């Protein structure tokens, strides 16, 4: 609200058969809905005419209901790999769509957590060298994954995560199923038809169900009326590490594409900045209006 200089946040809470509208009025607004607030459902030609069950990975609970089925898993990130593995464990026949390059790393390297090894090496070595060492270790543990249709990006896994926000896959057993042929790796989709999918290489597969492991995105543009700090993609326009503070008391936490470490950095900067502003203003004995809310009950 430019007139008052405060942020007004309207929310709706369901209470029994009623929907209660709450309006919060605050001096500072911290946007912490994150990078994965809503699922991404791609617009694929013919999907509406497919005729079988189509779900997003966020709705996937177990492979039990897919026993004996031919299932197309769209996406080869951590969700796609884990869903494909679980389907195998329930005697389904998954085909996993791999449209682009992907880094697959072992979850453990000779009994040590890959994550712990990365954290340890980053204390002493530059990122580019850690990337090279991780790829060597991955080759020693997993072998050459490219011959199974999993082409590696030219950029290292950590650099790719930091610059593009693309998380490497930590293998928990799916690669073994890919090597054995239990998980069929296929290229991108051209179109769907009734109970069938056509791939870009011209191959056609008969399938019973589809699981969309197509990721998530920020939903900030759908609810925040502001176009200066956040871009159309729902991320702060300023690059890391400058994308945590906007104008008029607006902050962002968890949009760095750097996982918990990035969110932690944003949170500390935000807390310190608000704390400093609060102390400076209270020292001058200014009257501060604290966050509150207004409630009205209405039927929808």
Assembly state (oligomeric): single chain
Along the chain, the helix and strand elements come as EEEEEEHEEEEHHHEHEEEEEEEHE
Mean pLDDT: 90
Low-confidence stretches: 295-300
Helix content: 25-40%
Q: How large is the radius of gyration?
A: 24 Å
**Strands of the biggest beta sheet: in what spatial order?**
5-16-6-7-12
Put simply, the count of helices is 6
Q: Give the structural class.
A: alpha/beta
Q: What is the distance, rounded to the nearest whole angstrom, between the alpha carbons of the first and last residues?
A: 26 Å
Globally, the shape reads globular
Largest sheet: 5 strands, parallel
Beta content: 25-35%
Beta strands, count: 19
Number of domains: 3
Cofactor: FAD
Family: Belongs to the FMO family.
Pfam family, one: FMO-like
Protein name: indole-3-pyruvate monooxygenase
């Amino acid at each position: 609200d430019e007139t008052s200089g405060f942020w007004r946040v309207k929310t709706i809470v369901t209470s029994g058969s009623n929907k209660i509208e709450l309006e919060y009025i605050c001096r500072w607004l911290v946007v912490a809905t994150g990078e994965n607030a809503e699922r991404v459902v791609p617009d694929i030609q013919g999907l509406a005419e497919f005729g079988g069950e189509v779900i997003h990975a966020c709705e996937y609970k177990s492979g039990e209901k897919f026993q004996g089925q031919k299932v197309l898993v769209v996406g080869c990130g951590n969700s796609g790999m884990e869903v494909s593995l679980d389907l195998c464990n329930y005697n389904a026949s998954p085909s996993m769509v791999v449209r682009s390059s992907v880094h697959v790393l072992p979850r453990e390297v000779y009994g040590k957590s890959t994550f712990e090894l990365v954290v340890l090496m980053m204390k002493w070595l530059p990122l580019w060298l850690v990337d090279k060492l991780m790829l060597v270790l991955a080759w020693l543990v997993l072998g050459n994954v490219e011959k199974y249709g999993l082409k590696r990006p030219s950029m290292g896994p950590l650099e790719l995560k930091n610059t593009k926000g693309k998380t490497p896959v930590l293998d928990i057993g799916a690669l073994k199923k890919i090597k054995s042929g239990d998980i069929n790796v296929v290229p991108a989709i051209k179109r769907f038809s009734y109970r069938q999918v056509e791939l870009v290489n011209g191959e056609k597969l008969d399938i019973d169900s589809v699981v969309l492991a197509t990721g998530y995105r920020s939903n900030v543009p759908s609810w925040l009326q502001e176009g200066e700090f956040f871009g159309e993609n729902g991320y702060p326009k300023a690059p890391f590490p400058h994308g945590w503070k906007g104008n008029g008391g607006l902050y962002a936490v968890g949009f760095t594409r750097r996982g918990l470490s990035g969110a932690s950095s944003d949170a500390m900067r935000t807390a310190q900045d608000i704390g400093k502003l609060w102390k400076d203003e209270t020292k001058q004995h200014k009257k501060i209006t604290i966050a509150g809310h207004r409630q009205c009950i209405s039927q929808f």
